Amino acid sequence: MFDAPTIGSTVELQDSKITASGVHVFYGDTHAIKDVNVNIAAKTVTAFIGPSGCGKSTFLRCLNRMNDTIDTCRVEGNIHLDGEDIYDRRVDPVQLRAKVGMVFQKPNPFPKSIYDNVAYGARIHGLARNKSELDAIVEKALRRAALWGEVKDRLGAPGTGLSGGQQQRLCIARAVATEPEVLLMDEPCSALDPIATAQVEELIDDLRTRFSVVIVTHSMQQAARVSQKTAFFHLGHLVEFGDTPTIFTNPSDERTESYITGRIG
Ligand SMILES: Nc1ncnc2c1ncn2[C@@H]1O[C@H](COP(=O)(O)OP(=O)(O)OP(=O)(O)O)[C@@H](O)[C@H]1O
């Protein structure tokens, strides 16, 4: 009874950074995302919530073509970043991912030094002309990720030697070093303790002054704390999208209400 299609899940186009329309995603015969229409606003944190398997991560990965790396995956529909079709064959996915960065559930630092982890994207994309410019990029990114103070005296040490929370902030520093316009975060705190979670949440709030942030989370408390907009997914449909306080206090769809009150999920 809950697998009903959804209507009217678009928001105002003003200040829209990403516009998705009529998006369907298939893994072979599995229809994982069904006709999703949504606008992601600039300089806003948008949370994707919903029960396990509803398609949150799949849709998130559409936004920087990460699904291109999965052989069986097929994406239909339109996704525009600042009015440009990101699935246009002229778009280089590597360049796209510099603009639309991603942080994963499990911290995944490269087996390199702290410095080289953060400098990686800047080097690939030729963002620094010399060593001192690269040093400045690395320092700025580590400061933004609230990690500079903890690592500035051991930049040559392996990134994998940091604590879990520090590794996740290192991955955030790596992602922000290329000055992305959008940062996608797939359950970025699920491997972290409450203190590290609080640090990352504070950081997310800070990042939205410069970027659009889209975060997949299983924690409704986290969605309520960090986001201004919330999208509720269910069985591949985007059921409801709106201002976070409204979604949590006065949802208009019974499926959303059932989820936030713990009756489904
Ligand atoms: N690589 C894949 N190959 C085949 N099917 C997949 C793949 N990734 C996801 N799926 C399927 O697509 C659907 C949506 O999965 P997805 O991981 O996007 O959901 P989710 O809401 O992020 O779930 P969770 O909260 O458990 O992480 C599920 O039915 C899942 O089994």
Detailed description of the structure:
By secondary structure, this protein is α/β, with parallel strands linked by helices. The chain has one domain (16-260): P-loop containing nucleotide triphosphate hydrolases (Rossmann fold, 3-Layer(aba) Sandwich), CATH 3.40.50. 34% of the residues lie in helices and 25% in strands. It is built from ten helices and ten strands. It has helices spanning 56-62, 93-99, 114-124, 131-144, 148-151, 164-176, 194-207, 220-226, 244-249, 254-260, and strands at residues 16-27, 30-41, 45-49, 73-81, 84-85, 100-103, 182-186, 212-216, 229-234, 237-243. Strands 6-7-8-3-9-10 form a six-stranded mixed beta sheet, with helices on both faces. A four-stranded antiparallel beta sheet has the order 2-1-4-5, with helices on one face. Strand 1 (16-27) and strand 2 (30-41) form a beta hairpin. Helix 6 (164-176) packs parallel to helix 7. The longest helix is centred in the middle third of the chain and has 14 residues, at 131-144. It binds adenosine-5'-triphosphate. Adenosine-5'-triphosphate binds next to strand 2 and helix 1. One of its GO terms (molecular function) is ATP hydrolysis activity.
